[in-house]
Amino acid sequence: MFSVLKPHRWKLSLLLIAANLGLILHLACGELKSVSEWVWLDIFGEGGSALLALVWLGLVLKSRPAGRVTNYLALGLSCIFFSWWIDSLDEFIRLPDSITWDHWLESGPMPVGMILLTIGIYHWHREQLAISAQMEKRERLFREHRLFDKLTPLAGADYLKRQLADSLQDSQTQQQPLSLLALDLDHFAAINQAYGHAEGDAVLQALSHLLLLNLRRQDLLCRLAGDRFVVLLPNTGERQAKELALELQQAVHGLAHKTRLHGERLQLVATTAVVMALDEPPQDLLKRLNLALARAKQPLAKSA
Amino acid sequence: MAVKTSWYEADSRFIPGHYQPATLIDLALSRDIDSHRLLRGTGLFHEDILAGTARLSPQQFFGLIGNSRKLLDADDSSFLFGQRLLPGYYGAASHALGHAQNLHQALEILIQQQVLLSPLVTLHLELDAHHAYLYWRDSCGAGEHWRFLLEAGMTSLVAMSQWLSGERLPWVCCFSHAEPRYIEQYWVHLGEETRFERPLDMLSIPREYLTRAWPGASATAGQVARQQAREQIEQLGFASSFLDCLYDYLREQVRQPPSLEQAAQAFAMSPATLKRKLHKHDTGFQQQVDRVRKQVALHLYQVKGYSNDEVAAYLNFNDAANFRRSFKRWTGSTPNLIRQLFNSR
User: Fold this and answer.
1) What burial class does residue B48 get, using C-beta atoms within 10 Å of its C-beta: 0-12 exposed, 13-18 middle, 19+ buried?
2) Within a domain: B2
3) C-beta of residue B314 within 8 angstroms of C-beta of residue B306
4) Were both Cys, which of B6, B34, B174, B211 would link to B202 (CB 3.0–4.6 Å)?
């Protein structure tokens, strides 16, 4: 937690000092209200807003790498917090009517903060577009972080099933073919046994990057389970899908993965299978794909 | 009749922390899970496990499994755990498994040395003319974690037999639970021949695979390791769990099921103690009696090919309707449907 906030320690201490100065200034010039004069609704409303602004600030700083966009967001939220903080102070401290600077302190930072926050969010949006471009082939139009795989930078089976249902509908309304491709490593268990499961994990991660590089823009790559990957191929007939499958197989064959411990080269071989969607529910299509893969693996059974 | 007087219970601390629990801990650590959060509430310390001094009770192991499931939060946890389980690093018993001459011997080692190799799950092997059937039983009252243990257990056996035999074996996996949302994990880790909503949790394989020689096994090393593992079990003082001892006793008496009082007497304890022990294992006496009778009835149908009347007569039911009702209670299905299920295999 603290290591995350470290790059922002100047900003945070400045905010702390400013908030304290505001408090001291109020205390120096005004007098405390008695508890009977407190208006609880205002205290909750204004104090709660200030507190929430602080929570937003913390979340933003914690979830984002430091940088220009983060600075805009942090400064904007800091100003907003300061404004609400001063606003809630006068619930507890009464200032004499002759003093006018408190209005400036209260209302001045708010528009500045709003403008900074807007600039920050706008750049965040630009940044997100850039990231989404990088996420291409791993997700389509819909994002749900809970469906991401824990090991590889890909989506898992649940995301695939969801996308498959949508794509099946699209392909029917647009009268376009839709194909699915499955790719499964041969002798993956032997890699785990010989080099350890951590090496097996590294192979899967390398493989997911390799497969992404060999796909088209509109394709979606997911990790189904274990060492089995599935690619959703919109607007693709069976013949074209088979060509893609062959390309992926060759790419895997050509991958010179080195083990992490001794830099030894692992020769990877993959089996692929392709099915074209018929008029059927997603679950049946996936089942058919896996049976096709099992058949393709059959000659291997003797030597697996 | 005499019954074994030594067994392990859900709170007996005997599972070495660096055996099966360490396999799960290592899996969680490889997914960047904090070891303190992983062991929270189990009364265990990572240092003790690393030092090789920690001994877990089945209940503590369940606690660890519960934490791992929650923190890993992935559909493949049980399968990844299972892949790492066998032959494992559990001393002589693992050596014995690694040097098994064939599948049959490997299964016998697993069954005889269950307390070392698989303390939470009991295996039972049955053969008929063409098939070998391997039944999976809860030995310590796993409750909500049973499915996790079953997935891990079956994966471990399928993965180990594939590795040691050097070929993919045509296992058929049957589960009593319904098809889960994450069916693809079963396809990838257990194969396409996976069936759900079956009367029993079971693996089956054509009998000829039992005796095919496995490459790389050393007969001498295997024999010595088996002997060492037997000595280890003798030192431990027990070879099976309390629920398994009760199961064996009830199975012998299955044609005339004993009452709770009779069972308590056979186990040299008061009925109240027996009840309390069963409660500790999250079960009851009638539940255990039914479990045995269900297993025997299914065995008679499946392996002996008995008719409804013959099974009812064997289990001493006076009339067919009564038997059908009981059978429905045990399996959620009628005898005729179950027989169809077996015939369609």
Assistant:
1) middle
2) no
3) yes
4) B174
* Domains of chain B: total: 3
Of A135, A157, A186, at which residue does a domain stop? A135
End position of a domain, from candidates B73, B95, B128: B73
Give yes or no: residues B280 and B326 share one domain.
Answer: yes
What DSSP character marks residue A46?
A: I
User: Residue B192 is nearest to which of A158, A193, A291, comparing CB atoms?
Assistant: A291
Residue B176 · residue B199 · CB < 8 Å: yes
Which value, in Å, is the radius of gyration of the alpha carbons in chain A?
29
B163 touches chain A (CB under 8 A): yes
The DSSP call for residue B17 is: T
pLDDT in tens, chain B (345 residues): 456 668 999 999 999 999 999 999 999 999 889 999 999 999 999 999 999 999 999 999 999 999 999 999 999 999 999 999 999 999 999 999 999 999 999 999 999 999 999 999 999 999 988 999 999 999 999 999 999 999 999 999 999 999 999 888 999 999 999 999 999 999 999 998 899 988 889 999 999 999 999 998 999 999 999 999 999 999 999 999 999 999 999 999 999 999 999 999 999 999 999 999 999 999 999 999 999 999 999 888 877 888 888 999 999 988 888 888 888 888 878 887 777 766 654
A224:B83 CB<8 A: no
Report CB contact under 8 Å: A192, B181. Answer: no
Tokens of B102: 């064939």
Q: Please give the structure tokens belonging to residue A130.
A: 């850039």
Q: Are B180 and B127 in the same domain?
A: yes
Residue A266's closest CA among A212, A188, A198? A188
Distance of CA B302 to the CA centre of its chain: 20
What range does the domain containing A190 cover?
Answer: 145-300
User: Residue A281's domain is classified under what CATH number?
Assistant: 3.30.70.270
Q: Is B84 on the interface with A (CB under 8 A)?
A: yes
ipTM here: 0.86
Tell whether A70 lies on the interface with B, counting CB pairs under 8 A. Answer: no
Out of B30, B74, B166, the one facing A197 most closely (by C-beta) is B30
| Chain A residues with beta carbon closer than 8 angstroms to that of B182 | 157, 225
Give the separation between CA A216 and CA A193, rounded to whole angstroms.
Answer: 34
Contact residues, chain A, for B163 at CB < 8 Å: 189-190, 193
State which residues form the domain around B296: 242-343
Instruction: Report CB contact under 8 Å: A290, B76.
Output: no
| Residue A234 in contact with partner chain B when CB distance is under 8 A | no
**pTM reported for the whole predicted model:** 0.82
- Residues of chain A with C-beta less than 8 angstroms from the C-beta of B167: 301-304
> Is there a contact between B188 and A291 if contact means CB atoms under 8 Å apart?
no
